[in-house]
Write a structure and sequence with these properties.
Layout (H helix, E strand, L loop, with lengths): L2 H15 L2 H6 L4 E4 L1 E5 L2 E4 L2 E5 L2 E3 L6 E3 L4 E2 L1 H13 L4 E8 L5 E7 L2 E2 H7 L3 E3 L8 H10 L6 E2 L3 H11 L1
């Protein structure tokens, strides 16, 4: 079996293992339903605010610069990319914990697509390595391919938020 097929087989078995019925059978808390996107790493399901596990996407109002130095609305495009990854499907989230703002932090899937992975792969989120390294290879590929925010210059989302708070 070649490495690509082996990785695909592993990915499919992980997705099958993390489907809502499997999670519920293991006694893990899940949240499922129609999602509305708040920004590139946040959504809401049935009134519950959810932050995607392991990533930090550019903020909704954040601007980036392309390789030619032109400004573009990377934060708005990140939100559109998350909506596209969801594709109108039901979202199933495995609850990990709550963040300092009271939001649920969860690993979420839509139609078998890991939404955190999709955002990193599309180049709209960075990996929060202190919470896990499973998405690092996707970030490395996105950076090498110069997709999304990696096609120019951007301010790390945490630094952008801190700067914006300082302006208020």
């Amino acid at each position: 079996m070649n490495p690509t097929h082996a990785l695909s087989a592993v990915a499919l078995s992980i997705v099958a293992f993390l489907t809502p019925p499997a999670l519920e059978a293991r006694g893990e808390a899940t949240i499922s339903g129609r999602a509305s996107v708040t920004d590139g790493d946040s959504l809401e399901i049935r009134g519950e605010r959810i932050r995607l596990h392991g990533i930090d996407a550019v903020e909704a109002r954040q601007q980036c610069r392309d390789r030619d130095g032109r400004s573009w609305p990377c934060g708005r495009r990140a939100a559109f990319a998350l909506e596209d990854a969801i594709g109108g499907r039901t979202v199933h989230c495995r609850v990990r914990n709550r963040d300092d703002y009271g939001r649920v932090v969860a690993q979420c899937f839509a139609g078998g697509t890991d939404l955190s992975a999709a955002m990193v792969e599309r180049g709209y989120a960075i990996v929060l390595r202190r919470y896990g390294r499973e998405y690092v290879p996707l970030e490395d590929r996105a950076r090498a391919a110069r997709v999304g925010i990696w096609d120019g210059e951007f301010e790390r989302p945490g630094a952008w938020r801190a700067r914006e708070r300082g302006r208020r």
